Amino acid sequence: VVSGDTSYTGKVDRQRLWDRHLTLAGYGALPDGGVDRQAMTPADAEARRQLVAWASDIGLTASVDAIGNLFLRRAGRRDDLAPVMTGSHLDTQPTGGKFDGAFGVLAGLEALTALAEAEVATTRPIELVIWNNEEGCRFPPTTMGSSAFTGHLPLDQALDARDRQGIRVADALDEMNRRTQVADTRILGGSLFAYLEAHIEQGPRLEEAGYPLGVVTGIQGLRWFEVEVLGTESHAGTTPRANRRDALQAAVTMIHELAARCSDREDILRFTVGRLDVSPNAPNTVPARVRFTIDLRHPDAESLQHYGDLIAPLCHELAGHCTVAVHEQPVSQPIRFDADIQRLLCECADSCGVPYQLLPSGATHDAKWLSLIAPSGMLFTPCAGGLSHNTRESADPDDLARATQVLTAALKRLANDV
Ligand code: HGY
Ligand code: MN
Ligand code: MN
Q: Which of 63, 114, 133, 266 could be 144's S-S partner, Cβ–Cβ 3.0 to 4.6 Å?
């Protein structure tokens, strides 16, 4: 059981943690209080600069790897040992909130600040990591930086990804690095002793159950597809139905049929078409090209396989006079977090006097890739109404601070485990 002395967790400063959320939310601030800080935009770079400044105040050293992951390192007594890592992401959805990603980054910074103020040294180094492009909404796939770090996404494939304006990750990353001015670079990948990530739940379970903290058991699987339907532009007024190759009608038929086939009775499967682009997108021209995305998730690997494998055949079957191509991003299988790490987090919650509930994650996180190469775990806090990927995303400052105290205790324990 954890030694009773968790006095250093008393250095976690609730107000400082809250104020830093509000400061970071200023980078990409939306008029309604939300945040649009998409990956490798100037706002993302400015938020990183602010973070590096806060980190240097407590003596952390900054470095960046080839896919833009940012590492802020606290030296250990045995600096040669593999580090304990903690972190999350700073990029947001277009209609993002103040807490998705930012909480995990600021909780890690607050934990290291508390250890510094309590003058607690650890045997192992601890690294706070800002994973680049977790959301994947500007440059697919999601969790790009962490999957490149663990070797599950080839670096050149990541650097070659393009946004809808045709900008490459490689060029957007160069621009962000120029603005962030982090001089030290480090090799991509590397060993770590363990990984912890704090995050808002992004769902309603903790709030409904009345718990201020969640210890996460695992993350459901995720498959991302892009479907491209090709037809022929033609005049809306003169082209008879029989002569049309209408890409939008074909796409609508596919989406309707896929939604029907991906509606399980238990309501566990998650099927989302979040983006649909039409070209030439003119009211009086029959659409010639439609691209739409599919985000498919399930906690069971076989079910994810089954439903995901329906998609391409069904799209081809319903293409009519059009042609269709289905592209899939790297699959992320369901994962379970290391049992010893879960136990450690539960013990630290007990020693900090914070009630908690065990629960799975419906949202995906960088921790899923880290869990494939090192013992990993996550802590959740409730968020108001379970709302996230929404500008009204909100969390309670006391919940954030208490989860950060538990994170601090867990980091100290892991960093002294040699
Ligand atoms: O999509 C997700 O689950 C994460 O919030 N980016
Ligand atoms: Mn997130
Ligand atoms: Mn997110």
A: 133
